[in-house]
Structure formats: structure tokens, C-alpha cells
Amino acid sequence: MGSLTGKFSFFSRRNRDGQPKEGKALGRYTLAAFLAAGLVFAGLALLFYQQWMLSSEQQLSKYIQLEVQRQAVAVHAKIRAYGETLASMARNPILPRLIEGGDKRLLQVKEQELKYAFPGAIRVRLLPLGLNDVDEQSVPPLSYSGLALLRTAEGSDGTTLAEVQLLGRSEQYVAMAHRILSADREVAGVLFLALEPSVFANVLSRLGLADSYLELRQGTNQHQAFARYGNGQLASDPPQGLIPIEDSRWQLAYWLSTPGESESAHLMFWGGVAAGLLMLGLIFYARDRVFAHFLRGDLITLVNLVRDLQRGQLQGRYKVHLSDFKGAVAVIQRMTSEEQTGEETVVSAAASSGNAISNVVFEATEGIKVEEQLPKQGGPIAASIFKAYDIRGVVGETLTSETVYEIGRAIGSEAHAQGQQNIIVGRDGRLSGPELSQSLIEGLRATGREVVDIGVVPTPVLYFATQYLSTGSGVMLTGSHNPPHYNGMKIMLRGETLALDAIQALRHRIDSGDYTSGTGDLQAVDVVPDYIERVTSDVKLIRPLKIVVDCGNGAAGEVAPRLFRALGSEVIELYCEIDGQFPHHHPDPSQSENLEDLINKVKEEGADLGLAFDGDGDRLGVIDSQGRIIWPDRQLMLYAMDVLSRHPGATILYDIKCSRHLDQIITEYGGSPLMWKTGHSLIKAKMRETGALLAGEMSGHLFFKERWFGFDDALYAGARLLEILAADTRTSGEVFAALPEAVSTPELRVEMAEGEHFRFMERLLHQAQFPDAAVTTIDGLRVDFEEGWGLVRPSNTTPCLVLRFEANDGEALERIKDTFRRLLLEVDPSLALPF
User: Fold this and answer.
1) Of 76, 80, 392, 585, catalytic
2) Which ranges carry the Alpha-D-phosphohexomutase C-terminal domain (predicted)?
3) Can you give the residue ranges of every domain in the chain?
4) Per residue in 766-812, pLDDT tens?
5) Which of 278, 459, 517, 572 is most deeply packed, by most CB within 10 A?
């Protein structure tokens, strides 16, 4: 029995006597298994690769065809939009009277006014019926083909097909026309539109495929192309296809480079196979080494068992790792026990084995300690911080770190209830931001939410991040335009900004302690470069503009200058260093005193425009080239004209503080105006309900659903304004001067104690009587008289009344102000009114 140890040396190539060992080494079996598994793996990978390549080619071919069709549809959509606008403008009853009157000056003024409805227009002309004289000196020239287009329009009910006039010449232009009918339905003339061909080339550049070449042709000859985009070298061969463009005389010719199986793809595939085989080999090798280690140990234990049996020193327990050897040990022990002591020893051995297993189990479980982390506990939370559409309070008083932690837990719990796992957190540049942000993040993570911290950003960048990172949920820690000692939260869950009852639901959740528990992860992400890239891919300036940007030391300071420079503008920075003390002026562009430095700088630099942003970058102030303040309702007129030029009939939303001239502009340009309550959350909710493409508030919140995401974004609004102004040859001062303007006041405020302004409003509504005027009470009290209007409403962000007045002239304005002054003082004679 003493030679047994030597006979169990299975892991050397030879036994100790130098003779070859019988049987095969364990490693050979492992190698054979690895080779078999490797062949199966490689075969399956090759089969998958071939199927994937075939599927990819089919999908790519289908994608290419769909993309080309999509571009053709996009060009047609552009034509159709211009055609619908042209038809809408031609129905204006003023036009036939102007044509019949023949006053050239009045005709030119109206033509210039109509031109603004058509981005990229060279000229809009009002031409009389039967015009037969060419005009080669006009810009653009009116040729014989243009006269033929007039004849077509005169005899057609709709807009003529889009066609290129003077094709191939430097003066070429896209022409469309629509007849003008008089009151008795007789043809009075033609509305003739001349567009830059680049309007349609820009459509191709916005949708162009990689490594492709596209041409818009009039006819089938390559030399009759008037718009091109892409790699022109591909055009040495005939086009791969021609797609007719509806409502035009054009075709879209395309050349596409379809990649085949590239060498890099093969290298990546075989590299992946090699890596997979290497990983498989490492797994087999590791398994072999581990198994061999345990096998060697168990064999030694078995040899020791036999040796002890031989010596008569058999022990009660022999430790082995592999279950197969446990059976062998038990059999040997049982055989020995039956010979020596009978069944009693067998029972003892079994009990010993069972106790050993039992001991292992209980040692593993009894050593586990569960430690529960108790949440932070703060004092009672002031109900006053839960506003109509956000949370806002005084730092250190109504808004503390403990308060923010509890609010974070409430938001996270509500997110859990709505199936939201990931929440983005951003903050503005206030000094309380770092501490409160940490508490907010801790509160969110305590509910098991995964938090993405994007740092100091403007609020629109947080909104963008919820779209870009596909979370739909985010919290912006910001005091907005309030003083430095304020801070608060704007909250978005599942794509909706919380307001009214949803805000109050968070307070009720805190009061009842209705929290979800968990531990969420935290990661930091920089989304500003992606935001800038997304805006610059959408907005294009056809000429650079010189602008002054005043960020008021707010959160927009790090983003706005970079964005506008990326758009090609010359940017002069004013107060763009982030400073939570706001040392130069209050970050509120709705107050004229905060715009004085910007006005002076625009005049000093001779800039084309001045842009101002509030503390968190979601409200916009504008100064034109003459240093005049352009209030948001007048900005909205220009945006509405631009959007309606592409989407006639679209709903345009504005808040109760806006000018009634805005309603007139929207209606005149074929839109559907809708007045609504003030408040960024309320406006966004109404936009979703109505499908509005554009909205704005007098406070400076501007919302674009056309080409953007529908949230309030002052940075994007500023970019869209630059796009509009860059396409116009006039100065910004001249552009805005052409818009209707009444005599009006800015927002006026009457400060009150917290909550008192709502109680005052209730008493005012009860006492107000205006039988000869139109009264609107959707948000406060707005009274529209024949000569103007007045408004008083309770602010939802600060404890004050907000007032505004507008009238046709100064005398009428004073009369309306006097009417409201008497009404307000009847309710509370002690009021100190700012007017």
C-alpha cells in the first residue's frame, strides 16, 4: 500500500519509474474539447457574419431608397408651403384694390411687406392683368417665360407649378404665381413670387446622405440643374435615378455610393472571432487549471485515506472538493466501519458529515449583518415654496439642504410611480447651488433613481438633455430671475413639466412620508457640446451678424457666446462670467433698467442686435440695432410670420400679457391665435393639448415646436431670430419698425406679503365691473377697451401683482391706467402703485 502515492501522480508526463503512464493526460481532453468548441464557435460566427452582411446590404439599399424619397418629399413640402402661403396672401381683399389703384408707391410698400412672409424671397410683385411687357432691367428680370407663367396663373385656380426662370444664367430664380380676384370674382392681377434657388439647395444640404450627390433639375439634361449638393465626382456617370417633384417642373437626380464588403469589416470580423477564441481558450485553460488543482488535492486526500486505513488510524472526516470523490470516501469509510464496529460507526460518520454541511451553511448566513440607513430628517417644510409651476424659496429660510433632500425623495418616489428610473439634474450659478444640488441628488438616489449630473447649465440645456439622453425626466435647481438669496426647482417627469396639482402632490407625498427606498447610481455627463451641435445643425445664417450678448452673470454665460460664435456671429460678451451674486444688474430682461448696459453697448459697438438672458437662460430680451427694447410680444410677431410662412393655419399661443397687435399679425398671416395663462409649465401643457407650433410669454419665455422640442429655450429663440434677420437685407431696427407697435408699459409690479396677492386678486375680481369692455379672467383680470387694454394678475413666482397697459396713444394709455388705479385703490387704499 505504500506505493499508492506514486501511482496517483497523474499530472506528470511519466511515472516516477520513468515509464510512460497509461492513459491520456487530462490536458489532452481539455484541448480536444476546446478545439471542438472553437470550431463550432467559428462556424456559427461565420454563418452569422454572412447573414448579417446580407441583411445589412438589404437594409442599406432600402434605407437609401427611402432617404432619397424623403428628400424628394422634403423639396415638395417646401414648394407646397410656399404655394399655400402664396394662395393665402393672394386672397387678401386689399390687393385687387391696390392693383386697380395703380399707385406705384403703395404697391411697392405692400410688395415689401408681403416679402417677409417668404423666407429666401428675392422679390414679391403685384402685377396687373394682361401684362405683356418684359422687364430685363428689374431685379430679378421678368422675361418672356415669366409672362407665360403670368398667363398660366391668370387662367388657373391654384398656384402655378414651381419653375426656374432664366435657367443657367447668374440671375436664375424660382418663380411661382397665383391669380388675384376682385370682390366680384374677376381676375384683377397676379401675385408673382421670385425665390433664391438656394432655398431648395438648403433642403438638400439638410437632408443629404453621406457620400452622395443630388441635383434638382428642370428637364433631364445635367446642364439644367439649378441646385446641387454632395460629392460632384459621382456625377461622371448617369444618375442612378430620377424622381419627379410634385407641383413643379423638376426632377431630383441622385448618385449614391453603396459600400460593399470592406477590408476593415473583414478585419473586424476575424479580429472578433480571434478574440472570442482567445477568450474561450482562456476559459478552458482556467477551468482546466482549477479542476486539476482540486483533482490533485482530492487524489492526495484519497491516498491519505487508504494509508490511514492501512495503518489502522482511520479519521472521522476527510475533506475533498469534488462531489464524485465524496462518494468514494464515504464508500471506503462504510466498508471499513462494517468490518470493525458495525452500524454504529456508520451512523456516527453520517452525523458528522451532516453536521459539517450544516455548520458551513449556518456559518455563511449567521455572519451577514443588515445595516439600514435612515433618511435625513429636516424640520417642517413651508407650503409657500410650492408655487403654481415650480418650487421656489429663500435659501436658509424656506429652502434648506434638508428641505431639498426631502423634495428630492418626493420627486424620486413620484418618478418611480410613473416608471421613470433615470433623472437628469442641472443647476444654475447661484452660490447655494453646489450644496443644494448635492442634497437633491442624495434625495433622488435614496429612492433608487439613477442620477445624471450635468453640472452648471442653462435650463434649456437640461430640457434638451432629457430629450437627447432619452430620460424624459429632469430637475433644474434654479432661482431663475429672482434675487441671489432665492433658489428653487423646475421639474420634468415623463416629458411634462410639473405644475399646479402635480407640484402640490409632491408636498402631500412629503407630509405623508410616502417615499420609495433604494440606492441609485450617479454619473456626470457634459451635454453642452451636443446641444450646440444640435442647434447649429438646425439654424443656418446666410450672413454673419455682430451681436452683443448680456448673460447677466447667469448660467447662460458659458453656453451663449459659444453657441452664437458657432453660428458664425461676431460676439461681444457682456457680463458672461457666472457669478451667483449678480454684481452688475438683476438677471431679469423683462425689466427695462436691467437692459440699460446692453443698450449702451449695442450703440457703442454699432452691433446688429443685442441679446439678454435671465439667470437660468430660459428668458430672452432683445435690443435692436437702434438701441430700442423689443419686448417679447413683438419678437413673437416676427417668429409667427416666419413659422406661418411654412405652416399656414398653425396655432400660435401667447400669454395674457401680450399685445393685441400680436393677434392681428397671426390672423393676417393665416395663423390661429390663442391667448392663455402665464407660466412656462402651463404654456407647454397647452401646446401639447392644441398642437401649437409656437408660443411665447411677455416675460421672455419662447417655445418652438417647429424644428425644435417645444420647451422654452431663449438660446434657441435667439438663434432663430438671428436666422430671420440674417436673411433680411434691412437692419434689425428697420425690420422691427415695420411691425405694428402700440404705446405700452413694461411689466409693472406691486410687492405684497407672501400669499396676500392671491387674496387681493379674489377681492378685485369680486368688485370689478366693466359692462362696456371685453373681460378675460383666465389668469387675473384683463380688460380690453376699444382704445387699448389693461391687466392685473397675481404672480406665480414672487409675492406681487403684475400689471401691464397698452393703448393706441398716450392719452388713451393714461385713461386706462387711471381706470385701473381707481379700481385697485378701492380694494386697498394703502397700495403704493408704480404708475
Assistant:
1) 392
2) 748-822
3) 36-260, 263-358, 383-526, 545-741, 744-827
4) 888 888 889 999 999 999 999 999 999 998 777 899 999 999 999 99
5) 459
